[in-house]
Amino acid sequence: MEVPDNLLCLYNAELKEQDGSYVIEVPAREVSNNQIASGEVYRAAVLQTKTSGTNNHSTQPDQQNTAQSAPEPPVEKGEQRTVTIEDVGDQGDGIARVERGYVIIVSDTELGDQVVIEVTNVRQNVAFANVIEQQ
């Protein structure tokens, strides 16, 4: 699957029925991170995941076993970049978000810190980094 450059955020959500319509809720963190703004119009894409519930819609036989490939992480091990700590995790580590809402966990940081980091470990959905310089 090709991911467009103008993708602002990516998250999992449950489709809910509400007053005769179906609703996908946007997490407040996506708005508070200034990735998107309340009142604006956006285009949404819906992708089926392996963990989704039962599906009452039929699919073509060749589509049933097609695996969705996740986008590559937007950072690489050893990469250095400047980030702002936007949140603090349960264990006290700083959380920075970069392209497509990708999360980087940065130890020894506090909310609001702007730091230069070096990425030390990259996983599909999260990376870990150390501070090189406080700004």
Q: What sequence of helices (H) and strands (E) makes up the elements?
A: EEHEEEEEE
Summed over residues and divided by their number, the pLDDT gives a mean of 80
Quaternary state of the chains: single chain
Number of strands: 8
Contiguous helical run count: 1
Distance separating the two termini: 37 Å
Coarse morphology: elongated
Class from helix and strand fractions: mainly beta
Percent strand: 25-35%
Cα radius of gyration in angstroms = 18 Å
Strand order of the largest sheet: 3-7-8-6-5-4
Describe this structure in words.
This protein has 135 residues and is mostly beta strands. It is 4% helix and 30% strand. It is built from one helix and eight strands, in the order E-E-H-E-E-E-E-E-E. The strands form two sheets. Strands 3-7-8-6-5-4 form a six-stranded mixed beta sheet, with no helix packed on it.
Topology diagram in text:
Elements: E1 15-18, E2 21-24, H1 28-32, E3 80-84, E4 87-88, E5 94-97, E6 103-106, E7 114-122, E8 126-134
Parallel strand pairs: 6-8
Antiparallel strand pairs: 1-2, 3-7, 4-5, 5-6, 7-8
Offer a quick outline of the entry:
The chain is mostly beta strands and about 140 residues long.
